[in-house]
Amino acid sequence: MSSFVIEAAGLTKSFGSAHALAGVDLQVRTGESLAIMGASGSGKTTLLHCLAGITRPDSGTVGFRSGIGLVPVTELGERERSRLRREAFGFVFQQGLLIPELTAVENVALALMLNGMPRATAEQHARGWLAALGLAGLEERRIGQLSGGQAQRVAIARAQVTGATVVFADEPTGALDSQTSADVMGALLHSTTGQGRTLVVVTHDPDVAARCSRVVVMRDGRIVGERQGARSVHPAAAARVEAQAAAAAAGSAGAAGTPEGPRA
Ligand SMILES: Nc1ncnc2c1ncn2[C@@H]1O[C@H](COP(=O)(O)OP(=O)(O)OP(=O)(O)O)[C@@H](O)[C@H]1O
Question: What is the reported pTM?
Answer without folding.
Answer: 0.85
